Amino acid sequence: MKILAIDSSSLVATVAIVTDDILTAEYTINYKKTHSQTLLPMIDQMAKLIDLDLNEIDAIAVSGGPGSFTGLRIGSATAKGLGLALEKPIINVPTIDAMAYNLYNTDKLICPIMDARRQQVYTGVYTFNDGVFRIVREQCAISIEELIEFLNEQKKEVIFIGDGVPVYQTTIDHTLDTKHYFAPAHVNRQKAGSLGVLAGEYFKAGKIETAKEHKPDYLRLSQAERELAQKQAESNAG
């Protein structure tokens, strides 16, 4: 089985080919270029380097959200376009779940945090039991204070990953009661390899959709949508 994995949910652009139990190729860039400039060229170059005809893939895995609204739209459009052109199914993997899979089989709680602005983080809490991936708290958008309160209740050691760490590390250090760690650079951001491997588990469980059906999960409204809703509420109140 061959899966093309795509993640553009943050500043990181990352693509991979996972062939059965082998990570055949992975191409990751964490640089300030728009994903519309990088994503398709990265897929094309990766495919050429491993002599891959994209018609050979069995499915396309995509980070379905949450994350950057623009990044998710570009990733979703790329996956949909390829899925329609190649007639391949889409595996929609929650962004935070895929990030947690970077730390496979650790005995600690895994807590990805993405900076969602407006004093919130996109987060979730995960663990492994005998190699089985478990969701302790499903991905959500909450304040860092609410997250730390939840983690303090668990009374377990925690590993944090994600672009929210530099923003909230001091707060975590000062308010989290349990022993905690911050993952090193090679596993602390989105990795298409992890996404592709987890997508393989989703595929086995029948969690697939058509390219036409796929849409990203933003978890909350965009700024433009929030402003419009506020204006409408103020207009109705007036």
Describe the structure.
- The protein has 238 residues and is an alpha/beta fold.
- The chain has 2 domains: 126 residues, Nucleotidyltransferase, domain 5; 92 residues, ATPase, nucleotide binding domain (Nucleotidyltransferase, domain 5, 2-Layer Sandwich), CATH 3.30.420.40.
- The chain is built from 7 helices and 10 strands.
- The radius of gyration is 18 Å and the shape is globular.
- The chain starts with a strand and ends with a helix.
- About 4% of the residues have low confidence.
Residue-averaged pLDDT: 92
The CATH superfamily of the largest domain is ATPase, nucleotide binding domain
What is the first-to-last residue Cα distance?
Answer: 59 Å
Tally of distinct domains: 2
Order of helices and strands: EEEHEHEHEEEHEHEHH
Count, helices: 7
Task: Classify the fold: give the CATH topology of the largest domain.
Answer: Nucleotidyltransferase, domain 5
How does CATH name the architecture of the largest domain? Answer: 2-Layer Sandwich
Blueprint (SSEs and pairs):
Blueprint: E1 2-7, E2 12-19, E3 22-30, H1 35-49, E4 59-63, H2 69-86, E5 90-93, H3 95-100, E6 109-115, E7 121-129, E8 132-142, H4 144-154, E9 158-161, H5 165-175, E10 180-182, H6 192-204, H7 223-237
Parallel strand pairs: 1-4, 4-5, 6-9, 9-10
Antiparallel strand pairs: 1-2, 2-3, 6-7, 7-8
Helix pairs in contact: 1-2
